TrEMBL record:
This protein's encoding gene: cysC
List of residues binding ATP: 32-39
GO molecular function: adenylylsulfate kinase activity
Keyword list, A-Z: ATP-binding, Kinase, Nucleotide-binding, Phosphoprotein, Transferase
Family, as annotated: Belongs to the APS kinase family.
Protein name: Adenylyl-sulfate kinase
Purpose of the protein: Catalyzes the synthesis of activated sulfate.
Species annotation: Pseudoalteromonas obscura
Length: 198
């Protein structure tokens, strides 16, 4: 980093913003195969939290590729950069006092750990959508598995690109067995148990 770049400290800090909002800021990092339910569960959870007065923001893998990461492809290097950018943005949102929900395949453990290390202890909650590939492929909501199997999409996670399951996620969801309501309730129970929300 350039030695002429200096960090500025300000009077209003994360703790002040958190107190104002009445809940703790965290990142809920949803990871799993395409079709595992990341965006669906994150969206339903955000709706439930919003109704409870929790200040949230949802970052979705497809949506950020329309703007923040529109210059990136799906090579391993681009996937790493995609997660780095989202991690830095999530860190800023945590500093702003928000509950940040992120729905990204994020196939590599090293990148998920990198984001965890950007924020404080307990501020990164890894949510593993532990839904078997077979179920995700049966769902195929965007028709991507079909295209990947036909060779029309390269570097597709689970087909010709690796996915490293989380080593020790805080939360494990299986949307192949549990309903959407059960998954959301499991997440809310966790947030309450950890005194992140009331």
């Amino acid at each position: 980093m350039d030695k002429n770049i200096v960090w500025h400290n300000y009077a209003v800090e994360k703790t002040h913003r958190s107190e104002l909002k009445g809940h703790k800021p965290v990142i809920l990092w949803f990871t799993g195969f395409s079709g595992s339910g990341k965006s669906t569960v994150a969206n339903a959870l955000e709706s439930a939290l919003h109704q409870s007065g929790v200040h949230t923001y949802l970052l979705d893998g497809d949506n950020v590729r329309h703007g923040l990461c529109k210059d990136l492809g799906f090579s391993d290097a681009d996937r790493v950069e995609n997660i780095r950018r989202v991690g830095e943005l999530s860190k800023l949102m945590v500093d702003a006092g928000l509950v940040v929900l992120t729905a990204f395949i994020s196939p590599f453990q090293a990148e998920r750990d990198m984001v965890r290390n950007l924020v404080g202890e307990g501020e990164f909650i890894e949510v593993f959508l532990d839904t078997p590939l077979e179920i995700c492929e049966q769902r195929d909501p965007k028709g991507l598995y079909k295209k990947a199997r036909a060779g029309e999409i390269k570097n597709f996670t689970g087909i010709d690109s690796d996915y490293q399951p989380p080593v020790a996620p805080e939360i494990r969801l299986n949307t192949g067995e549990n309903s959407l309501e059960q998954s959301v309730q499991q997440l809310i129970d966790y947030l309450k148990d950890k005194n992140i929300i009331q």
